[in-house]
Design goal:
CATH superfamily of chain A: Winged helix-like DNA-binding domain superfamily/Winged helix DNA-binding domain
CATH architecture of chain A: Orthogonal Bundle
CATH class of chain A: Mainly Alpha
Strand content of chain A: 15-25%
Largest interface: A-B, 33 and 33 residues
Number of strands of chain A: 5
Strand order of the largest sheet of chain A: 4-3-5
Helix content of chain A: 25-40%
Radius of gyration of chain A: 16 Å
Structural class of chain A: alpha+beta
Shape of chain A: globular
Distance between the termini of chain A: 37 Å
Oligomer: homodimer
Largest sheet of chain A: 3 strands, mixed
Number of helices of chain A: 4
Number of domains of chain A: 1
DNA sequence: GACTGAAATGTTACATCATTACATGAATTG
DNA sequence: CAATTCATGTAATGATGTAACATTTCAGTC
């Protein structure tokens, strides 16, 4: 029982707005707010935040993007093995903004162990490290 | 090197607004937004969000409250040993809202190990489990 | 081709969360 | 008691996220 959110397989192709939003996210290693994404898509006809949030919701469902709760921002998924139901964690550099995604079975095991001992049934876990990446120290 | 935020010792006594805000937080096991706290303090003369946020900032400094990033909400610290510089994690019940705070040395060790292997220097870590508490399953 | 239902998109308005800038008051200390 | 500092108060605004409803697109079917 891994504390991981459900991931729906992506549809055959992304819709226009989904593709636009994913394109922006995928083009940077910086986390972007929904409004920052919107600003970059004005020329493509997007005008309202809800259009971005709708696309983001689907990309999150598909496992193609992640939300960083501590930043209220989003990144494209860069995980090597998104199919495995492993807990994903993030290291966020407070200097350059770079986000590194990582997973580890022992982290899953630890959280599953704690959850079992407390009889807590996790559905979603947020783990975010803030600090300085190796290049910025 | 534990990835834990700096904690300033509390002053001799809390100021009036700090005490009011802490009183509200301490009276519930539910996370409260700053605006929910404000609503409960109208009768005590508080009128603006910034008054609550200022008090919260200090309570966070003193280690007397925590911010739940995934909820944009706050809880009183309920940790058994806040002096130990251990990573604090939260289990948040999505049914009843109850928040359980916990720490574990092995979690600290795991994060410290990962940080060292990546040469990442953490300053602050967010770990929040969402799910169902034992009473709500 | 026209009808139909579902999905995607568009538009407006609003709700919620958080900060900036500046003014006032109260306590401390040199 | 002047100067300083800290706490508080007030107003305005910025940043993030959602609700409600209208319109368009498109696939399947007749």
């Amino acid at each position: 029982m891994s504390p991981t959110a459900q991931v729906t397989p992506p549809p055959r192709t992304l819709t226009k707005n989904e593709a636009l939003v994913f394109g922006i996210l995928n083009g940077t290693d910086q986390p972007l707010s929904a409004y920052a994404i919107l600003d970059q898509l004005r020329d493509d006809g997007l005008r309202a935040p809800v259009q971005v949030y709708r696309a983001l919701d689907r990309l999150l469902e598909f496992g193609m993007a992640h939300r960083l709760e501590s930043l209220n921002a989003f990144v494209a998924c860069n995980h090597d093995h998104p199919e495995e139901a492993a807990q994903t964690a993030f290291a966020i550099c407070e200097s350059c903004g770079k986000v590194t995604e990582f997973t580890d079975p022992s982290l899953d095991e630890y959280l599953a162990y704690w959850a079992k001992s407390e009889n807590f049934a996790p559905t979603r876990t947020t783990l975010e490290l803030r600090g300085l990446c190796s290049a910025c120290q």
